[in-house]
Specification:
This protein is mostly helical. The chain has a domain of 39 residues. Helix content is 40%, strand content 0%. The longest helix is centred in the middle third of the chain and has 14 residues.
Length: 93
C-alpha cells in the first residue's frame, strides 16, 4: 500500500458524480424599497398573526404574481391576412 502524507486526503472514487450534472448556481439581486411607519407596523402585525417573517410574506406575494409570467409565450409574427390564407375549411373543398 502506498504511503500518503499525513495532511493529504485519502483517494476517493468519484464515479458516482461523473454521470450527474452540476446544479446551476442561483444568482440573487438586491431590491430595496421604503415603507411608511404605518405600513411597516401593519406588515409586522400581519406577520405576527400569520406566524411568519416579513421577508417570507413578501416573497410569497411576489411569487404569486410572478408565476403568471414565468413561461414566455413566443411572439407571433403572423398577420391576420396570412391566417386567412391558411383556413382549414378551404382544404376540404
Amino acid at each position: 500500500m502506498p504511503s500518503t502524507p499525513a495532511n493529504s486526503r485519502p483517494l476517493v472514487k468519484r464515479t458516482a458524480l461523473r454521470g450527474r450534472k452540476r446544479r446551476k448556481k442561483i444568482r440573487y439581486r438586491q431590491l430595496a424599497f421604503k415603507l411608511t411607519c404605518g405600513q411597516l407596523e401593519a406588515l409586522e402585525k400581519l406577520c405576527r398573526n400569520r406566524k411568519t417573517t416579513p421577508i417570507r410574506f413578501l416573497k410569497a406575494l411576489i411569487n404569486l404574481q410572478i408565476d403568471r409570467y414565468r413561461t414566455e409565450t413566443p411572439v407571433s409574427y403572423v398577420t391576420e391576412n396570412q391566417l386567412e390564407l391558411f383556413d382549414t375549411a378551404d382544404f376540404g373543398k
